[in-house]
User: Which sequence fits this backbone?
């Protein structure tokens, strides 16, 4: 008998909380069972803020010993979420007051039955493979994906054009369904934009393309369409498409600049962004790349979409605890959308970061080395702590994986609390980012020893720490120094590796 997971998604109509004067939360109850459960397990549900995957938006739903589970999920409007079981993902549609029951085969992870008042919508989503990784993505990463072999022209004919056609076939399937018109339009919009999103990921993340070829692929994907929704509020795939479309606008700006006289190329306002290239660079350095992206969104998208995208940008920076880049975006929200439904929650998150910044400026556990500018060797710092084990983190405020790892650092430090372990953070940010770096450390409560080097100055540190130049410049990178100050450079684990890293550090205590 095949293992089955039976999941019931019940959406109650209990009003629990006021979001705004016109918006309320209804209570979803997600429940179900994994039959023939062999070991402790979980199911995850990602309910995005607007689009994308952030850890704070993933709800871990534990199964009891019999495989049963239940979870209450508040919701105010129709939402698309991603149901995750092991390596499989499915898009589900949720509506207040509706009920969904699905059965998942745990052996081959396929859905087999749909019941409830929103069953038809979700069965259709499953039939058109919504949320499921297509074969040309699942085949591998850059360098080992068979679909990415050949010239760009060959891959375009072999993969990209057929996938665009298949996407339209799925849209036709949605439109031919018996659903009501509003739901068909919403689901069709999600299906069409999901196709573009997967192809954009394939072009940027898996194919080996130069800038000229990427511009050509952008034209193929986006040249005949605009980021205007058929239905609002839109789903996460549409907003991901709206984000990816910024890359197309950047490509058009590049083409425009290439057609200008060289003397004017960097000072002439470019399409979509309405600032010169030089000004865009300056804004990216002072306010962040997302702020420059926001300029294109503000100048191009309709007001509801632009407002939602701005809220997503602010929320992303709040999730990263990057107050420096969140502030100018929040100023835009206050000035342009003072009555926005997104504003109260985002303002509260910003206030929390500001409070952390003030509090941690007097935190003696956070030590920025005085005169770090004159330090030319990491051993000038490490040798101060002989007799202790040193864990060195080479990172940057701009580095997404570096920021992701910070979520696991409190657990790491708790593991070695009261023991002879010192944490040193070597940041790579240029001098113009000095205040940003200092504030980021404080907001994130990064206790430990800190110094910063520019991109040019940090090279000498790489040279002394990593003899293999092919491995230099990878962020984040970690080193352990034993009690004698000797560097251990082979396969030092990240904080997210947890026990494996704890064991590495412990063996030198």
Assistant:
């Amino acid at each position: 008998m095949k293992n089955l997971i039976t999941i019931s998604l019940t959406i109650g109509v209990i009003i629990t909380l006021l979001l705004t004067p016109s918006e309320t939360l209804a209570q979803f109850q997600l429940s179900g069972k994994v039959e023939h459960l062999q070991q402790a397990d979980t199911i995850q549900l990602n309910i995005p803020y607007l689009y994308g995957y952030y850890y704070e938006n993933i709800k871990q739903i534990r199964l009891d010993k019999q495989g049963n589970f239940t979870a209450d999920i508040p919701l105010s409007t129709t939402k698309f979420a991603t149901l995750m079981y092991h390596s499989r993902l499915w898009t589900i549609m949720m509506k207040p007051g509706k009920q969904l029951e699905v059965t998942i085969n745990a052996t081959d992870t396929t859905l087999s039955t749909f019941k409830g008042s929103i069953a038809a919508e979700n069965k259709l989503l499953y039939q058109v493979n919504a949320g499921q990784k297509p074969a040309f993505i699942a085949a591998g990463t850059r360098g080992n994906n068979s679909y990415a072999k050949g010239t760009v022209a060959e891959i375009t004919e072999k993969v990209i054009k057929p996938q665009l056609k298949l996407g339209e076939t799925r849209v036709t399937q949605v439109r031919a369904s018996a659903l009501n018109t509003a739901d068909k339009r919403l689901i069709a919009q999600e299906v069409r934009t999901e196709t573009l999103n997967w192809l954009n990921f394939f072009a940027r993340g898996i194919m080996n393309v130069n800038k000229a070829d990427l511009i050509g692929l952008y034209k193929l994907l986006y040249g005949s369409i605009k980021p205007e929704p058929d239905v609002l509020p839109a789903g996460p795939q549409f907003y991901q498409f709206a984000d990816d479309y910024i890359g197309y606008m950047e490509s058009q700006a590049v083409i425009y600049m290439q057609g200008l006289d060289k003397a004017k190329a960097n000072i002439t306002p470019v399409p979509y962004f309405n600032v010169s290239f030089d000004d865009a660079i300056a804004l990216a350095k002072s306010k962040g790349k997302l702020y420059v992206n926001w300029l294109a969104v503000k100048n191009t998208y309709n007001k509801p979409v632009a407002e939602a995208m701005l809220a997503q940008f602010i929320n992303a920076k709040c999730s990263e605890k990057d107050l420096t880049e969140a502030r100018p975006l929040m100023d835009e929200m206050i000035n342009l959308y003072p009555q926005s439904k997104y504003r109260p929650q985002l303002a509260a998150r910003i206030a929390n970061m500001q409070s952390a910044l003030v509090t941690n400026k007097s935190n003696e556990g956070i030590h920025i080395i005085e005169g770090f500018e004159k330090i030319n060797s990491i051993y000038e710092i490490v040798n101060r702590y002989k007799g202790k084990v040193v864990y060195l983190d080479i990172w940057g405020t701009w580095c997404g994986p570096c920021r992701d790892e910070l979520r696991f650092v409190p657990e790491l430090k708790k593991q070695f609390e009261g023991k002879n372990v010192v944490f040193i953070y070597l940041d790579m940010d240029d001098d113009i980012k000095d205040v940003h770096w200092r504030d980021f450390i404080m907001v994130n409560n990064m206790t430990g020893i800190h110094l910063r080097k520019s991109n040019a100055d940090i090279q000498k540190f790489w040279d002394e720490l990593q003899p293999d130049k092919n491995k230099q410049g990878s962020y984040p990178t970690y080193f352990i120094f034993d009690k004698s100050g000797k560097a251990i450079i082979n396969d030092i684990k990240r904080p997210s590796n947890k026990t494996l890293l704890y064991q590495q550090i412990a063996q030198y205590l």
In short: Confidence is low (pLDDT under 50) at residues 1-22. The chain is about 40% helix and 20% strand.
